[in-house]
Structures are given as C-alpha cells and as structure tokens.
User: What shape does this take?
Amino acid sequence: MTIALHEPHTEDFQSLDQLHAAQDRKLQALGRRLAESPAWCEHLAKAGLKPTDLRDRASLAAMPTLEKADLRARYPFPLLTVPVEQVARFCATSGTTGLPVMFGFTRHDWEVTLVNQLARIYRTVGVRPDDRVYQGYGYGLWLGGPSMDVALAAYGAVNFPVGPGRAELMVQWLADHGYTVTTMSPLWLMTLLTAARKAGFEPARQWKLRVGLFGGQSVSATFRGEIEAQMPPGFMAHNIYGTTEAGGPILSISCPHSHAHDQMHLISEDSVLTEIVDPKTLQPVGPGEVGEIVITTLDKQASPVLRWRTHDLVRRADKPYDCPCGRKAFGLIGRIIGRSDDMLKVRGVIVFPTQVEDVIAGVAGLAKEAWQIYIDGDGSSLDQMEVAVERLPSATIGTEALAAEVAARLRTRLGLTVTVTCHADGTLPRYEAKAVRVIKRDVQR
Assistant: This one.
C-alpha cells in the first residue's frame, strides 16, 4: 500500500547517516549511467577521469565542475542521457545571456521524481489536499508553472493555474475563489497588493491565503515581512529555491521554524546532492560561511548534471542540522545572497543587489517591487553607481527627501556614497517573475 503524498513520510525525518548512505549509493549508480553516454565520457576524460571513478561522496570532489559553456558547446540537447524519443517534455533556462539550454525529462522524471520532490516541499510548509492553490508561476518552456501543475495534481490540491498577469482580475478572484495557497514570485504578489489597494480591496480581510511559496527572486526578510503584514493573519511567505538544471523548484524551502530565521532546508538532498563551496577554491565552506551552491542530480534520468555550478551564493547556517522541526538530515542555509557573476565592485567595495534591496525595503513610502541599479561598465571595477527608486502616492515626504534617506542608509550599509534618484509612482518596470535589477548603460552616452 502506498502512502498518500500529503501524509508524513519517514524519509522526511531520516538521519544524516541514512542520507549519506543513500547519496553514496546513488552516486555510484550515477557513475554507471554516465559511463553509457559518450558525451559524458568525453567531458570527464578532459579531467583525466571516467564516469565509474564516481563511487561515493569522497570521490565527488575530484570530478570536474560543469558550466553553462560546457552545455552550450553541446547544443541543442547537451549531455542528454536518453534518446530524444524517450523524453516526455523539455524545459529550458531563461536564456538571458545566450541561447536557452534545453533539459529533458523522462516520464519517470516528470511524474515520479519531480512529484515526490515537490510533495515533500508541500508537506514541509503544510499544504493540504483540500487547499485551493493560485498557481502564479509562468508557463511555456519555463519550469515553474508546469512543475507545480503536475505535482499539485498528484498531491490532490485544487489548482487554479492562472500564471502571472491580469492583476485586476486576480485581486477579485483571490477574494471570490477563496484561494488558501499560492505559488508565485514575491514581486508579483507585491504588485497584486498594490493593485488590490487601488481597487478598494482589503487583502488582510477579504483574501483567505495562509501559505505562499515564493521563488524566482530572492527577497529580504524585511520585504517578506512587509508582504506578510498586508496579508490575512497567520499568512506565511515561504522562500523556495530551485533551478532548471536541478530539475525544478525543489532544492530548498523554509519550514515554519526556519522561516523566522530567514533560512531554508536543503530539502532534496537525497535526490539532488548540494555542495556549498568557495567560488575560487571550490573547497567546502563551514557553518556560518558564504559559498556557491554546486549541485549533482542523483535521480534524474534524462538530463543529469554532475557538479553544476549555479553561481548562486548562500550562507550556511551556524547550526545547519539543528532545526526544531526534526528534519535533521536536510541542512539549513540562508536565503540566496546573490550571484557570483552579479557581484559589483564599486570603488573597491563589494556590493550585491540584495544589499540595496534590504535598504529599500526598510524605507517607508517606497515601492518595494520597483527599483534598479544603473552602472557604467561591466561591474568588475566601478567608480560609481546610481540607484533608482519610486515614491508611492501615500508617502508622507517628497521625492528629494526619500532619495536623501535612501542615500544615507546605503552609505551606512555599504560604506559608499552613491547617487539616488527618486521617481514618481509607475515610472520603473514591474516584473512578474525574475527581476532585472542591474542595468548597464552605454559609457559613451
């Protein structure tokens, strides 16, 4: 008899020793699978290795890392380990820096592995089979919306797969349909809250949402707190993190205990092994230290990755395996700090866009979902940067005073004097999913 996806599973509360044994067993099996792929054999041969050298966690560190250039060099179906005819569907990366990269899913990948991974996430945050879910992630080749659809169907939840957009209609439906759970970008929810106020709705009273799964964009605890303050009592905005290369939004999720500390569990460690390493040395970082997330998919059949460099930076928790929820094997990390390739260096000071967002989120009278950074150059060595913000109509002070306050807080936070411009409401772009925060201007302007 199979256990229902929504009921507690013993694997959710396995010990660290049990997890490590499963990882070792699956790594060895992965090595055998990759040995049947000429492309993978060629990739590993460049490092003087063969797939069967992958035997366990100890041997993993000797394997070469995988970069986007390695995949694009094998366009159009890079490192695919099954015939195309066995692929049930493809998903793709966003393609913001070049052609999108295609990742295949067998039927087992899509209907079993992904469903089980997301079911664990739903259990962790308390989604119930009778919940009404406003699914607000996008569709097409992007993985967010389609993955939620297939997993919610298997879980038994009532899915309303609207996706992002149509704000005026959604603020009405959120009241009329009685959605209790939502999956979307936090930026899109902030846009909906603004639209609701303009339309005369009171989300805290008229909406029924109690759980949100927010991904696609890492936001600060201050921003998240502002969202929760406008929502129905008890609503919890959970950070969720994943990548197309990992096989979905399945890598980490906050639980009701870790949520308050702005931390997430690496919840799929028995199906996607995660290393957190120094971006320069690729050596593991310790508790409390910042490192880059590197992933190895253990169960994926169609497009596995071995030591894929996400370039996403995160801080390991001081006590990674000490959460009161009991998920001791699934270590804790903080929210995504930024990307190693998004890091700016201004007059010798390292700046991440998330630091700027933290400041903006703490200033009353600003639109928290609308801000940008303008730079002249590639970001590796800058003399200056400009931060653009937007004044809400309800603000009690003017644009010049708001700009001065943001500049002062940035100076305190970063140790830098930066130019701040404050615009009228509706001037800066809004984003339904991943926001573009750093704009490179023409240095000849």
Remarks:
- The chain has two domains: 1-340, 344-441.
